[in-house]
């Protein structure tokens, strides 16, 4: 069994860490939005992260009283790898989503309006027709300030991975893996793999923002999807289990105070 202690001859004090990438996913199951900087608030997700989802068949979602629902109610990469063939752009100021397929714009709509949502729904109805359980419907809470989100866990957390652990996983898999496969919010630039496994219960400080590490991330079949081809490859969760006796890769954190996160921000660990 491969060791996952994370020390690798180094400790948290000697390891220099910084922010490598920042991402959000405005629509659950669709592509990432690269961010250079983002302003966050305490006890909330990234603004507009998983703010929308595409209902796959009737669900119990109530926009006026939004509650957590499992991802089986929505289109998601776990079961619908075809979604990876789409690229998207999202303008937060206008809540406008643009969808591209093979570099060509195929749909565009303002998600804050019924007409805009319908434009996206019509495209999804045609593109995903063989996998739909009913008419697709774009869902969001009626009030974004309520911080409802369609992530895989009910609590408003951020998902974090490290570059060194991703590279170590590539060695195990013997293949290159796009960092975006893991659908994280924050990618930390590190040199020693698996350090993040030591951070449970600790606080990481990125710039002036403190994030308490809550748990490791148990992975599902979504990370098996090749984002370039939209096809499903070998089972990464099974490989993780084979080497580490669990499917964990990455960590969840709770934002403790508001502030700004920016690419290349330094990162320190607070015991």
What is the helix fraction of residues, given as a range? 10-25%
Q: What is the percentage of strand-forming residues?
A: 25-35%
- Highest CATH level, the class of the largest domain: Mainly Beta
User: What distance lies between the first and last C-alpha atoms, to the nearest angstrom?
Assistant: 29 Å
Number of DSSP strands? Answer: 17
CATH fold category name of the largest domain: M1 Pyruvate Kinase, Domain 3
Which structural class matches the secondary elements? alpha+beta
Unreliable sequence segments:
1-12
Order of helices and strands: EEEEEEEHEEHEEEEEHEEE
**CATH-assigned homologous superfamily of the largest domain:** PK beta-barrel domain-like
Radius of gyration: 19 Å
Shape call: globular
Number of domains: 2
Number of helices: 3
Query: What would you say the CATH architecture of the largest domain is?
Result: Beta Barrel
In the sheet with the most strands, the strands line up as 1-10-9-15-12-11-17
Averaged pLDDT = 91
Characterization of this structure:
- With 271 residues, the chain is an alpha+beta fold.
- It folds into 2 domains: 17-23 and 154-270, PK beta-barrel domain-like (M1 Pyruvate Kinase, Domain 3, Beta Barrel), CATH 2.40.33; 48-146, no CATH class.
- The chain has 3 helices and 17 strands.
- The protein has helices at residues 114-127, 163-173, 236-244, and strands spanning 17-24, 33-35, 37-40, 53-55, 86-91, 96-101, 104-110, 137-139, 158-162, 186-189, 203-206, 209-218, 225-226, 231-232, 248-255, 259-262, 266-270.
- Strand 11 (203-206) and strand 12 form a beta hairpin.
